[in-house]
Design brief:
This protein has 236 residues and is of the alpha+beta class. The chain has 4 helices and 12 strands. The longest helix has 17 residues.
Length: 236
């Protein structure tokens, strides 16, 4: 892949199994992906890439600061039904991509990847018709100042990381961890989980995060009671 693609206003090529559509700047790769699906133009393994976003967003439509130099990409995959296990596969894939550059990432439920307790990447998974859109942002050259939490960037730990190499490794890891048996994903996620066996808040109660089960449910313990949670947000 030619790095000059990133300097175009819009480009479209096929890379490995992926059709890659790139922009210099758009409001949101995630929004564009949904628009592509709605128009009937979406295909499996399409990646929407932007150098910068003017209206990037995370979970619950929280603003995602999107300056030049970082990776902002939304992947479109064919997915006939919702699967709670997908978020773990994606989180492990992102963590393994970062680990390949010599860092030690941790996964914080539900969608944050941390290094040294600081957020370096985020994940947003949204379903649309027969597809799922997987949005991923990774801080490479810059990291925003956020009141609610600390952030960091890949350049702090591994200088001069080419964005194209991060993207290449990410796509390979997404395909790898999306194919393997979920027991392997579950084991790796457990190794990387930042809040495992720690006290967290769930609907106002203090509980312990015990792990995840074979179906992708979070296992929480409240005193002697065990809870299975799908898609609910917990906080440290």
């Amino acid at each position: 892949m030619d790095v000059s693609l990133f300097k175009q206003t819009m480009g479209c090529i096929v890379l490995a199994k992926y059709k890659l559509i790139s922009f210099d700047k758009i409001p949101s790769t995630q929004t564009y992906a949904h628009e592509l699906i709605a128009s009937g133009g979406a295909t499996d393994h399409t990646a929407i890439l932007a150098e910068a976003q003017s209206a990037g967003r995370g979970r619950h439509r929280r603003k995602w600061v999107s300056h030049h130099g970082n990776l902002y990409v939304s992947f479109i995959y064919r997915c006939e039904e919702r699967d709670p296990r997908l978020s773990y596969c994606v989180a492990v894939a992102v963590a393994e991509t970062l680990a390949s550059f010599g860092v030690r990432p941790m996964i914080k439920w539900p969608n944050d990847i941390l290094i040294d307790g600081k957020k370096i990447a985020g994940i947003l998974i949204e379903y649309s018709g027969p597809f799922v859109v997987v949005g991923i942002g990774i801080n490479i050259k810059s990291n925003p100042t956020v009141d609610a939490y600390k952030t960091t960037k890949l350049d702090v730990y591994s200088a001069d990381v080419p964005k194209i190499e991060v993207l290449n490794r990410l796509m390979k890891n997404l395909d790898k961890w999306g194919r393997v048996d979920f027991s392997l994903v579950r084991a790796r996620w457990t190794e990387l989980a930042a809040l495992l066996h720690k006290r967290v808040k769930y609907h106002g109660d203090i509980v312990e995060l015990v792990g995840i089960n074979e179906n992708g449910a979070l296992i929480l313990r409240r005193d002697t009671q065990y809870l299975l949670v799908y898609g609910d947000e917990i906080t440290a």
